Amino acid sequence: MSKKIILLTLLSVVSLSASDRLSLKEQCKKEDARACYEIALPLVSGKNEKIQDVFEEGMSYMRKACILGENRGCDAMGERYYKDKNYAIARQYLEKSCTRGVKTACEAVGTIYRDGHDTAQNDVKSREFYEKACDLKSGDACYNVAIIYRGGFGVEKNRAKEKEFYEKGCKVGLKAGCARFTELDNEDKGIETGIWSKIKNWLK
Predict the structure, then answer these.
(1) Any long-range contacts for 154-163 (C-beta under 8 Å, 24+ apart)?
(2) At 29, is the pLDDT very low, low, confident or very high (cuts 50, 70, 90)?
(3) In this predicted model, what pLDDT tens digit does every residue of 85-101 receive, in sequence order?
(4) Which end of the chain is more exposed for a tag (fewer CB within 10 A), N or C?
């Protein structure tokens, strides 16, 4: 879910009257997943995130929203567990979120497998999730896939694939991806760059 959607949802809940909030709580008691989520969101966001009692209440509503089938609640649960470094539980939520096309979830699972957080380190799975995030226009994930092909982590080293993923990162706005793609592309074309190129120009 994008930050914009979260913000808009948060603003809509915050602007509710006390009677409307009470109504949402009653709807949640009747197992309305959307109502549970809308009650939970402001309680786990902003300043409330640092108020333990309020935050825990919010998470209880968020958990219920997820159980009742509100995907946004499940996404939020995964993000929360990941932020708290409870990676084993986070992964259970995040992998499902990634399947639904949540870019940040795919990135997070890629990192969990890359670094072996509460699971066996697995370069192949790491690449798979980073590639999904890259397809969802995560420049950082594209860059990570390029590094995997550069180093041969769980795959054969492949300069063409490395270059391809730097370019993908560049196309979604990652400056580091643009720089590395240009550097490799210039090398492939026999164009000298970097410090040696500058030294030769000085000596001319």
Answers:
(1) 154/122, 154/123, 154/124, 154/126, 154/127, 155/123, 155/124, 155/127, 159/184, 163/188
(2) very high
(3) 999 999 999 999 999 99
(4) C
Res 199: pLDDT: 52
Least Cα distance to 78 among 55, 86, 186 occurs for 86
Alpha-carbon span 14 to 6, nearest angstrom:
12
Of residues 193 and 93, the one with the higher pLDDT is: 93
Taking the C-alpha atoms of residue 149 and residue 117, their distance in angstroms, rounded to an integer, is 22
User: d(Cα 150, Cα 173) in Å, to the nearest integer?
Assistant: 21
CA distances from 51 to 46, 105, 118, 172 (A): 10, 26, 28, 37
CATH number for domain 86-204, candidates 1.25.40.10, 3.10.290.10, 3.40.50.980, 1.10.10.10: 1.25.40.10
Sequence spans of domains, the chain: 1-84, 86-204
